[in-house]
Design a protein that fits this description.
Radius of gyration: 23 Å
CATH topology of one domain: Rossmann fold
CATH architecture of one domain: 3-Layer(aba) Sandwich
CATH superfamily of one domain: Peptidase S8/S53 domain
Strand order of the largest sheet: 6-9-5-10-11-12-13
Mean pLDDT: 87
Strand content: 15-25%
Shape: globular
Number of helices: 13
CATH class of one domain: Alpha Beta
Length: 546
């Protein structure tokens, strides 16, 4: 598998009915849908039971109301599935269903359950054979310091103005970036990613494949992708948002190209939302499968047909900025973007070379409904990346232009905390080098940090930040855990700590470039650490978890 891009995803799961096409002793994965979420122990009035504080705060900031789609699947419905012999792989609240594993001979029992609506697809999601079977009457459901020594990576960063972004103190601090990929082989061991683990900036991991116990023993592609955002190797590679927080989900299955991977992607997106993700990056795309009868068509690249594109749009509706690889089909028969790059309200990212010229392999737009695609572009030809062996090299693909954009977005969010995700996306497009004449080769072109920020905050766009680089980790922090504070230089600083209501609860003195502090017991929630110096004032939000 050459993974600067995976080709297609179809929609989840299927219909059943015993047939000789199946080996009756084998098990398959099916996407089951439920009729409702009635009599659930979860409610919209108590979202803290199923969403993180960060996720809830993101919705409040952007005035996004909670809806039934946010409610988890009714646990009693899952128990009913188990009673038929089905194994629950994972529930999917956004479509009110569950991915299960079951023998075809037992599937009829599942479909007869009172609260089961049917299957998403009329075939097993993980079968490459022609296993479509009779539906038995069930129909499918459609639903401010000098920058680091960047080495060769300076080109891919400076093309977007990320070097300026870093110099202004925006390196992704406290922004959560979630990656959906094929695995992150050795990411917990390679030296250029050591900092995100030692500083406890890995918020969580998720493996969606039933037989994969850890994302760190999976595919190598995710490690390459992560390195372009999080890597730190002086003189060789620095990531676009190397001080951000990260979550990693394995959703792609390397051994084959199956439609079940679209369900995996949806699971990853739901998980990302529950964590409070700010930026979701996926260097995956779907148009063709091992079972050719499941292939997507260009007419389906309309942002509202494929399951994976629906999932991306839902994530965007919840305030997450999604950076999605446009695809590497520009010179192939398909040539167009693939799902979920066709989704609305996301940033589909094309690839350019170091000079800003289109990479020949970068997939073309428009979407089938004539929207500009890709949306923006960044360097995907000769991109400097890290490998699972710990070395630094170069690779090609929109797989790497998308995460560069994800790091860029993280800096934009950090620099413009009062703006919504939609305002951020709009400013990014307006800052593109061909924003006045967008096309279906590079979209609005290559954005620029200083220009994009000027649209939202004119003062920040023309004046340097009057603060120093202060880094707090871990963040979020567990109650009772020590907090590390790093400053760019030794200086006398007063630290004031406020609760979410603005009441000062503690003052401290900070002097050294690195200090460890232990605070008295605090309740879970958001606090604000304000650092005051002679002519410096900087405030950093810190999230305390139980």
């Amino acid at each position: 598998m050459s993974l600067p891009f995976r080709l297609i995803l179809l929609f989840f799961i299927f219909f059943i009915g015993g047939t000789s096409a199946f080996a009756q002793n084998s098990t398959y994965r099916y996407l089951v849908l439920f009729k409702d979420k009635k009599n659930s122990p979860f409610s919209l009035s108590k979202p803290e039971a199923y969403l993180s504080l960060k996720s809830i705060e993101r919705r409040k900031k952007m005035k996004i109301a909670l809806q039934d789609q946010d409610l988890p699947v009714n646990p009693s419905y899952l128990d009913q599935l188990k009673s038929t012999g089905a194994t629950i792989i994972f529930p999917l609240k956004w479509i009110n269903g569950a991915l299960i594993q079951q023998k075809p001979s037992d599937l009829a029992k599942t479909l007869k359950l009172e609260n089961v609506k049917g299957l998403y697809w009329n075939f097993p999601a993980d079968s490459s054979a022609n296993n479509q079977i009779k539906s038995n009457g069930i129909t499918g459901i459609k639903l401010s310091n000098a920058g680091p020594d960047y080495g060769s990576s300076l080109t891919q960063l400076s093309q977007l103005g990320i070097d300026v972004m870093h110099s202004k103190g925006f390196r992704g601090e406290n922004i959560l970036i979630t990656l959906l990929d094929n695995g992150f082989l050795n990411a917990d061991q390679v030296p250029y990613l050591k900092a995100i683990f030692t500083e406890k900036r890995v918020i969580g991991t998720l493996a969606t494949s039933p037989n994969l116990k850890s994302v760190y023993v999976g595919g190598s592609h995710g490690t390459n992708v992560l390195s372009t955002i999080a890597g730190q190797s002086p003189g060789k590679l620095f990531g676009a948002a190397y001080l951000a927080n990260f979550a990693m989900a394995q959703t792609e299955e390397d051994d084959s190209e199956l439609i079940v991977e679209e369900a995996n992607w949806l699971r990853g997106a739901e998980w990302a939302d529950s964590l409070g993700t700010d930026v979701l990056n996926s260097s995956l795309g779907y148009s063709q499968f091992d079972n050719q009868k499941q292939n997507h068509t260009y007419s389906e690249m309309n942002g509202r047909t494929t399951l994976v594109s629906k999932a991306a749009a839902w994530a965007a509706q919840k305030g997450i900025i999604c950076t999605i690889s446009a695809g590497n089909e520009g010179t192939n028969a398909w040539k167009y973007i693939s799902a979920p790059a066709d989704a609305d309200s996301i940033l589909a990212v094309g690839a350019v070379d170091r000079s800003g010229l289109k990479a020949s392999f970068s997939s073309l737009g428009p979407s089938f409904d004539k929207r500009i695609k890709p949306d923006v572009s960044s360097m995907g030809l000769g991109t400097v990346v890290g490998t699972p062996s710990g070395t630094i090299g170069t690779l090609n693909g929109t797989s790497f232009s998308a995460p560069l954009m994800a790091g860029f977005v993280a800096g934009m969010l950090q620099a413009n905390p009062r703006n919504s995700s939609w305002q951020i996306i709009d400013a990014i497009k307006k800052s593109g080098n061909q924003s006045t004449k967008p096309d279906n080769l590079l979209g609005y072109g290559v954005p620029n940090f200083l220009k994009a920020t000027t649209f939202l905050n004119p003062i920040l766009g023309v004046e340097p930040q009057k603060n120093i680089a202060i880094h707090i980790y871990p963040n979020p922090v567990s109650i009772g855990e020590k907090i590390n504070i790093d400053m760019a230089e030794d200086m006398q600083m007063k630290l004031e700590i406020f609760n979410a209501q603005g009441v000062m609860i503690k003052t401290l003195q900070v002097k050294q470039t690195h200090e460890e502090i232990f605070l008295p017991p605090l309740g879970s929630g958001r606090y604000y650490f304000r650092f005051l110096g002679a002519d410096i004032s900087q405030t950093i939000p810190v999230l305390y978890n139980l």
